[in-house]
Amino acid sequence: MVVNKIIKYLLFTYNFLFFLGGLIILGLSIHTRSNKADYQITDEVLPAINLLVFVGAMTMILGFLGCCGAIREDRCLLVLFVMGLLSVFLMMLAVGVLGAISRTATAQEVVKEHLKELLPLSKQPKDVQESFQQLERNGSCCGLFDGPLDWGNSTVVPNSCNCADISTNCTVFDGRVIYSTPCMRYLMTWLDRVSESLMGTAFAFAILMILAMIFSSVMFCQICVKKGSII
């Protein structure tokens, strides 16, 4: 019995995709962790980001091992690949669970408590203020909870609160037309989208990993039969 060529090259293709996927996950997670202030990453969410860094690195390594094992028809590499892939699968499952938990009301309250520590915004370092002003422009919002009052007083409310789009919700404050929507609503919507993307990515990778483990197991059995027929 010879090794099925279709399974062999399908497994190689899967592993190459794993390698690229691991590279993307590693790059995005490192970027997010390095710029956690810009993305408002709290200490409660940081473990999930750290886990993604580890998963991305492991996926790259396993993708390389799987490619070599498939092309060389090496049983040892295939065993290492399957065992490692099972470990990463369980970690990805944990990431999906953390993503689901981050959408609960309790997690949102934790985020709100963390952001309350930034008030008043005018007392924060300049780089934090600039990041938040960019958030106000992108989200067409002003302040965090109580609108412009979160900046401290009317004299320090930045121009990023000025209502540039009359189709959005605007109000008059101290003679200025500003956004009436607090940025907390925009942030919660963004967090929901991030958690949905996180769970969707974990689910898609889980499907690919299950298929790769099945193909690897079939190929491993075929190699064992092939080796046995030679002896």
From TrEMBL:
Pfam entry (one): Tetraspanin
Topology term for the membrane: Multi-pass membrane protein
UniProt keyword list: Disulfide bond, Membrane, Transmembrane, Transmembrane helix
Alphabetical list of SUPFAM superfamilies matching this protein: Tetraspanin
InterPro entries membership: Tetraspanin/Peripherin, Tetraspanin_animals, Tetraspanin_CS, Tetraspanin_EC2_sf
Transmembrane keyword on record: yes
Main localization category: membrane
Family per similarity comment: Belongs to the tetraspanin (TM4SF) family.
Protein name: Tetraspanin
Organism of origin: Scophthalmus maximus (Turbot)
